[in-house]
Amino acid sequence: MNIDKKITDDLAANDVSFVTTVPCKQLAGVIEEIDKRDGIYHIPSNKEDEGMGLCAGAWMGGKRPAIIMQNTAIGVTINTLATLIQYYRMPLPMLISYRGELREPIACQVEMAVHTKALLAQLNIPTYHFHHQADVEELDAILKYTFMCNKPVAILTDANFWGGYGDQ
Amino acid sequence: MIRSEILKEIAPILRDQLVVCNIGIPSQELHAIDDQPTNFYMLGTMGLASSIGLGLALSQPKPVIAIDGDGSVLTNLGTLPTIANNVADNYILLIVDNGSYGSTGDQPTYAGQKTSLTKMAEAAGCERVIECRAEDTGRVLQEALDAKQMTIIVSKCESGNAKMPPITMDPVVIRDRFMKAVQA
Ligand SMILES: Cc1ncc(C[n+]2csc(CCOP(=O)(O)OP(=O)(O)O)c2C)c(N)n1
Ligand SMILES: [Mg+2]
């Protein structure tokens, strides 16, 4: 299975047509796939809170948005999640690379990894953790759930899910 | 001229357009001057009015006017390159540049000192950037609407705030009536 393609197919099948991204090494493939799709407007943002603003506007304009970002961005976006996305009750699927987990080569990434789930739990954000490739099967249901309840929803995707970084 | 005087003057132009309005006193003033379902008031999240406005403009055909402040644009400077590189000809960003953080007591911003938001928008790649005096805002805004070209307006005005009540409308109500106006 090509996960990048599968994720993009699920987004498209759920009418997600406005996607903002800030890259992570693990997300390179899926970003490339999204960039290629005709039915998806890909708008890279310079910071993830900016991206969430774009998504809020797109949703009010009638498009289903999504953001693709690294878990370190949870630290950047807490105010925006609380005072924009949650306060005005807007749906926002967040496909998040979960850096700093098993098979992580960069020690600094662990420093935000240890806070990631705690911060999401504190914000009452429904959170799913993809650890094995097969976990991607739930993405379709998670997207439907997100647009049913109009909440931000986190999908944490760790290094094991993406196939690691090769031999280390 | 201060922000509230500009808003009073341009209210007849804003009335029929989708407007995303900056956090704090700007939204309170617009709400008090001419509340409309076509107004999206930001109650928090300083900095994102221009981003919300751009996302909205890119996602539907009606004109969108984002009313932002110099301090808020400075806090989300990344917005300028994103705007420049994702051209939406139904998008107008009106920066009310009073050279201060008005809502929090008129503390000076760098935009009132050495920094030019007009030049920063140009350097970011925005093609139609117009700096004007507060008194000319209405004319420049109407011309931008008529031009049907993405425009950044930097309206240089004085610092100062009108005393208006806080907005007590529920955020979901603001958002819901706004979305209905978008679809109407
Ligand atoms: C993250 C964050 N920092 C600070 C504030 C406080 N704050 C609210 S409005 C504002 C001033 C905004 O200034 P500007 O965008 O220039 O608008 P003006 O009121 O001058 O029209 C500030 C600092 C905030 N709401 N959020
Ligand atoms: Mg100001």
Bound molecules: thiamine diphosphate, magnesium ion
Oligomer: heterodimer
* CA gyration radius of chain B, whole angstroms: 15 Å
Of all chain pairs, the largest interface belongs to:
A-B, 32 and 34 residues
CATH topology of chain B: Rossmann fold
Number of domains of chain B: 1
Q: Classify the fold: give the CATH topology of the domain at 1-94 and 122-128 in chain A.
A: Rossmann fold
Distance between the termini of chain A: 24 Å
N to C succession of SSEs of chain A: HEHEHEHEHEHEH
Q: Looking at the structure, what is the overall shape of chain A?
A: globular
What is the CATH architecture term of the domain at 1-94 and 122-128 in chain A? 3-Layer(aba) Sandwich
Order of helices and strands of chain B: HEHEHEHHEEEHEHEH
> Biggest β-sheet of chain B, characterized?
6 strands, parallel
Mean of pLDDT of chain A = 96
- Main sheet characteristics of chain A: 6 strands, parallel
Poorly predicted regions of chain A: none
Describe it.
The complex is a heterodimer of chains A (168) and B (184). With 168 residues, chain A is an alpha/beta fold. Chain A has a domain at 1-94 and 122-128: Thiamin diphosphate (ThDP)-binding fold, Pyr/PP domains (Rossmann fold, 3-Layer(aba) Sandwich). In chain A, 46% of the residues lie in helices and 21% in strands. Chain A contains seven helices and six strands; from the N terminus they run αβαβαβαβαβαβα. Chain A has a six-stranded parallel β-sheet with strand order 2-1-3-4-6-5, sandwiched between helices. In chain A, α2 links the parallel β1 and β2 (41-44). Chain A is globular and about 40 Å long. The two termini of chain A are 24 Å apart. The relative contact order of chain A is 0.17. The model of chain A has no long low-confidence stretch (mean pLDDT 96). With 184 residues, chain B is an alpha/beta fold. Chain B has a single domain, classed as Thiamin diphosphate (ThDP)-binding fold, Pyr/PP domains (Rossmann fold, 3-Layer(aba) Sandwich), CATH 3.40.50. Helices cover 42% and strands 19% of the residues of chain B. Chain B is built from eight helices and eight strands. Chain B has helices spanning 3-14, 25-34, 49-59, 70-75, 79-85, 117-124, 137-147, 171-183; strands spanning 18-21, 39-41, 64-69, 91-97, 100-101, 107-108, 129-133, 151-156. In chain B, the strands form two sheets. Chain B has a six-stranded parallel β-sheet with strand order 2-1-3-4-8-7, sandwiched between helices. In chain B, β1, α2 and β2 form a beta-alpha-beta unit. The radius of gyration of chain B is 15 Å and the shape is globular. The model of chain B has no long low-confidence stretch (mean pLDDT 98). The structure holds thiamine diphosphate (TPP) and magnesium ion. Residues 69-71, 98, 100-102 of chain B line the site of magnesium ion. Magnesium ion binds at residues 69-71, 98, 100-102 of chain B.
